[in-house]
Amino acid sequence: MTSTPTAAYQVTDRNLALELVRVTEAAAVAASHWTGRGQKNEADGAAVEAMRLAFDTVAIDGTVVIGEGEMDEAPMLFIGEKVGAGGPAMDIAVDPLEGTNLCAKNMPNALTVVALAEAGNFLHAPDVYMDKIVVGPDLPEGVVDLDASIAANLRELARAKRKDISELTLCALERERHEELIAKTREAGARVMLLSDGDVAAAIAACLPDGEVDIYAGSGGAPEGVLAAAAVRCVRGQMQARLLFEDDEQLRRAREMNPGKDPSRKLGLFDMAKGDVLFSASGVTTGPLLRGIRRDGRRAVTHSIVMRSKSGTVRFVEAHHDFTTKTWPAY
């Protein structure tokens, strides 16, 4: 029986989703060697190198469009870096270790994260701050708005969820810049969950049906924002964002990456991640989303989440690794 091009694409797409899990698993195991050792740069570097090696086995012609800086900042996976063993042209968004401090201090929620889309489908964003707001699926379109007050957004969200505002929980990073957001949220009657780091996991948590978070809001890194958008696409949530610039150089860089577009415009979900999107994350330390790495001599157990926007499928993957037979190093 001869397969059709559509069927062949679907098989390739599914295979790539599983290949991405191997990439995030490799980075998570490598970073886990440094868990609790107080050396965040070493943990990040180990995750980067393991991720690079793992990408060498993935059948794509990949370009990193969301990474950890520019080429002269290597050994990070830099914007513009080429990865993959050859194949279809793909945009790649990576955070080899989201929560480097979390890993260094052995605190919850350190993750390794990768998202994949066909070339041209991810927002090309410099490493600046981004204002974000995220809610989950099965809600009226536009139920929250980045330009509305947090009190108004909580009212609309409570109405849509048929809850009292006092039953809602907003998640945000614990930062001085969020003091007003936190105060206004509590003044409106909602609860607040504060994180020291890790806003990709927080954005996903706002979209999971059994999660403890109803809305994620506040500013964080733009690279993490694009990764969050990829995940939110896969679970049919809603997200709006806007790049924030501290100086003219950052603004120039954003214009250069997206010619002809207003860099300060409000971004919808499909402005950040359009087309068919694949997303994978693996836990380094245990958190609300994923369990962390368990190591035992020459073996390790990983826990990952992998998602596809095309099908809306969310898989949680537990893998048992034997380093006597693995093709990537056991750090």
TrEMBL record:
Its cofactor is Mn(2+). Substrate binds at residues 98-100, 129, 175-177, 197-199, 221. GO terms for molecular function: fructose 1,6-bisphosphate 1-phosphatase activity; manganese ion binding. Pfam families: FBPase_glpX (PF03320). SUPFAM superfamilies: Carbohydrate phosphatase. Mn(2+) 2 binds at residues 95, 98, 224. Keywords: Carbohydrate metabolism, Hydrolase, Manganese, Metal-binding. InterPro entries: FBPase_class-2/SBPase. Coiled coil: none annotated. It catalyses: beta-D-fructose 1,6-bisphosphate + H2O = beta-D-fructose 6-phosphate + phosphate. Mn(2+) 1 binds at residues 44, 68. One of its GO terms (biological process) is fructose 1,6-bisphosphate metabolic process. One of its GO terms (cellular component) is cytosol. Belongs to the FBPase class 2 family. This is Fructose-1,6-bisphosphatase. The lineage of its organism: Bacteria, Pseudomonadati, Pseudomonadota, Alphaproteobacteria, Acetobacterales.
